[in-house]
């Protein structure tokens, strides 16, 4: 009846949205941020932001989507605010940029499954030459993009939802099994202590900003991905409850990922976690070193299993990002889903080529720019992260909030959120009023300005 498609039921919607939220951000980004930000101290700040700042943004995106049944751009038009269309267009831009580099990292992880399964434990000494190996990385990137395209082209209930319903439970079981195994290793406990015991001395202003950025990215906000997913939700669904479940699932899986990674790091460093490498190296260099140390077929199995799990998490996220431009093309230009997928995949892949080449293969792209006040050049991929994650996501999030509070009006948002829930006259409703009008604009503007100053101007 509806050629846009719909989620078949509540479970499908929640699985797909949780699948969008759970991704490289949880398993690769989160543990790294935790270890930088004083362990449990970071966790605490992170949770605080998820519930006070992010849930209101999530509810707003979902409500706009469901109310209009349109994509990130069309939704603003459908509500009668043509001038706000640019916010949606910026969202589309960020979906293309983020997917373009995210696919590259997912492709590395994908290749690692085969490297480690074939006992190439040495890969951790060769990460540099691995990412410079043009044939390998390009092939893996094409395969991963093709997988994403395949599931998106199958449609909302037939592709995206089915994928998430299978991969999400599998992912949870896999993470739990690896963490149980990890805890049996020597020195696992030091790893856990490093992870969980709060060290508030490590907390700086930038920890706070990073926690906010991490929460925003992890919950898939500020791109219109949740406007898009919201547009496929039944008119009867309780959005408030769904948003809380998705947030808990995302936070819960990030936490579990830490329970898997830190005991492993404790084992490898013999309890001296301060010496463990960070950044991309954490997953692609340190972990394989651990699998090598475990050795033999157990090491190969656990290692390949880990990277498979990472790819599962990444795939339900790449699918959600691709759906943003695809829904836009289908709704606004009236083309078939297949054509929209093909167009998007080509645009995104081309945009990602410099990120693909800028990790060793091309010197120019590897040392792409030097920001003011920094003597370390950064790669093209990092540049795109700074542009999209640190700038566009909070900007679009801010615009969506301002739109809901001052253009569309809070009463209309309330009406949408009240469907199927006891939201009316609740504490949440009252909180949403001050959150949307004052708290979020102030917090998001501050974060945006600070991030820009710190990142691009070395303040
Ligand atoms: N949340 C995902 C992660 O943690 C990434 C992601 C998927 C995303 N869809 C998004 C980020 C939309 C921002 C906007 O890996």
List keywords for this structure.
binds tryptophan, mainly alpha, 459 residues, single chain, 0% strand
Question: Helix count?
Answer: 18
Distance between the termini: 55 Å
Could you spell the SSE succession in H and E letters?
Answer: HHHHHHHHHHHHHHHHHH
- Round the Cα radius of gyration to an integer and report it: 21 Å
User: Which spans have pLDDT < 50 for at least 5 consecutive residues?
Assistant: none
Strand content: under 5%
Helix content: over 70%
Structural class determined from secondary elements: mainly alpha
DSSP strand count: 0
Task: Average the pLDDT over all residues and give the rounded result.
Answer: 93
Bound small molecules, by name, code or SMILES, are: tryptophan
Please outline the major beta sheet.
Answer: none
Shape: globular
């Amino acid at each position: 009846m509806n050629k846009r498609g719909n989620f078949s039921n509540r479970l499908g919607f929640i699985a797909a949205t949780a699948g969008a939220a759970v991704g490289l951000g949880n398993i690769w980004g989160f543990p790294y941020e935790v270890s930088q930000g004083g362990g449990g101290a970071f966790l605490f700040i992170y949770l605080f932001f998820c519930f006070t700042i992010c849930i209101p943004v999530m509810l707003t995106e979902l409500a706009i989507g469901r109310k209009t049944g349109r994509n990130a751009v069309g939704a603003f038009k459908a509500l009668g605010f043509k001038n706000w269309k640019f916010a949606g267009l910026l969202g589309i831009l960020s979906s293309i940029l983020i997917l373009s580099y995210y696919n590259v990292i997912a492709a590395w992880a994908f290749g690692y499954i085969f490297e480690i399964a074939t006992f190439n434990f040495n890969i951790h000494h060769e990460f540099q030459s691995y990412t410079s190996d043009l044939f390998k990385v390009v092939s893996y990137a094409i395969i991963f993009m093709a997988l994403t395209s395949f599931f998106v082209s199958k449609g909302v209930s037939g592709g995206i939802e089915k994928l998430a319903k299978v991969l999400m439970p599998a992912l949870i079981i896999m993470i739990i099994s690896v963490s149980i195994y990890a805890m049996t290793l020597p020195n696992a406990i030091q790893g856990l202590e490093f992870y969980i015991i709060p060290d508030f001395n490590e907390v700086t202003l930038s920890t706070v900003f990073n926690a906010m950025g991490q929460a925003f990215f992890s919950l898939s906000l500020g791109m219109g991905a949740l406007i898009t997913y919201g547009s496929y939700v039944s008119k009867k669904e309780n959005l408030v409850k769904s948003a809380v479940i998705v947030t808990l699932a995302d936070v819960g899986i990030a936490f579990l990922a830490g329970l898997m990674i830190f005991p492993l790091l404790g084992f490898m460093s013999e309890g001296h976690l301060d010496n463990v490498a960070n950044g991309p190296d954490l997953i692609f260099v340190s972990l394989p070193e651990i699998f090598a140390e475990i050795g033999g077929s157990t090491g190969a199995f656990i290692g390949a299993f880990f990277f498979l799990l990472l790819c599962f998490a990444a795939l339900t996220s790449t699918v959600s990002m691709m759906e943003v431009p695809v829904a836009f093309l289908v709704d606004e230009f009236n083309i078939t889903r297949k054509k929209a997928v093909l167009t998007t995949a080509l645009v995104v892949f081309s945009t990602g080529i410099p990120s693909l080449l800028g990790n060793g293969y091309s010197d120019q792209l590897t040392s792409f720019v030097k920001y003011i006040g920094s003597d370390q050049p950064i790669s093209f991929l990092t540049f795109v992260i700074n542009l999209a994650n640190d700038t566009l996501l909070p900007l679009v999030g801010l615009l969506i909030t301002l739109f809901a509070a001052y253009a569309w009006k809070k009463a209309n948002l309330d009406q949408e959120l009240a469907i199927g829930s006891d939201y009316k006259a609740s504490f949440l409703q009252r909180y949403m009023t001050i959150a949307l009008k004052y708290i979020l604009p102030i917090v998001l503007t501050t974060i945006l300005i600070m991030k820009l100053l710190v990142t691009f101007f070395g303040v």
